[in-house]
Amino acid sequence: MSAGVKLGADCFSQGTSWDYYIASMIRAEELGYASLWTPDHVLPTMPGGNGEGDILEAMMCLAAVAQSTSRATLGLLVSPITLRNPAVLTKMITTLDHISSGRVIFGVGAGWAQEEHRQYGVEFGDGFGERLRWLQEALPVMRGMLDGTRPTASGPRYSMVETLNNPPPVQDHLPIMIAGSGPKVTLRLVAEYGDMCNMIGPPEFIAARERQLVEHCEAVGRDSSEIERTIAFRQPVIRDTEEEAQTVAAHISAHHAINPPFLDMAGTPDALFEKLMPYLDLGYRHLIFQFLAPFDHETMERMISEVKPQLESA
Q1: CATH classification of 6-313, choosing from 3.90.550.10, 3.30.70.270, 3.20.20.30, 3.40.50.300?
Q2: Using CB atoms within 10 A of its CB, is residue 41 exposed (0-12), middle (13-18) or buried (19+)?
Q3: pTM score of the predicted model
């Protein structure tokens, strides 16, 4: 894992116009965010929201972001294994790697948003356990396609046969990020196939999952330091006072009909520094912040200019 502190901007493509979305992604790179992300959904799916409203398709958005930026890595955070055939998804990710000149991270997870599957007629499975089995079956195919080994699926979910993926990715080893914190299966898959992991939760929860991830790595003979740890945070808001920050956070949440509003990451620069430090102590130094429209450019800027220097000096 890198010893430095990296910040990521996860701009949601819901409740926004295209022009505002792409301008905010470009601005995030200009400010110095190391990674740019977009959730992969076809309906607005924020916890506490009502599932209504506008949303732009994520892969199309990311292709345009790849063309409009030049430095930051980029990826879906993350693509559920349910929405697309894994081989087709891998082909799309490979093409995106060419569009971006080799800056793509392949983010994938088991999926959770049942309503979008119902409306779009996509099979959701009989539970999280089944979707994890689908992910477990798909990961060797996706890794093999990225590496050029022409993999065949082992079944019973998928039936790809000697899958060709030409041209190969620009990157010699395009990284796979696996999102989730399930202690028995998800973290085992991270140990077996993940170049990066992504979790969300309070520090004590992450600390417990970190111990379990290390145990899985030891069980499969993997050096856990090979896996880059990333952590996601709900909508941050930085202002000079906590009261002002919470007012802005409540306004953003209301725009997406989120109730109760996201207030956990609203406060002064010093307050956010204090909330983030425990994650750095655990070794999670790639911090990814979710930004909902109307995108708070003041917070984007102050996170880089005021919070990040404190994290780096600490």
Answers
A1: 3.20.20.30
A2: buried
A3: 0.95
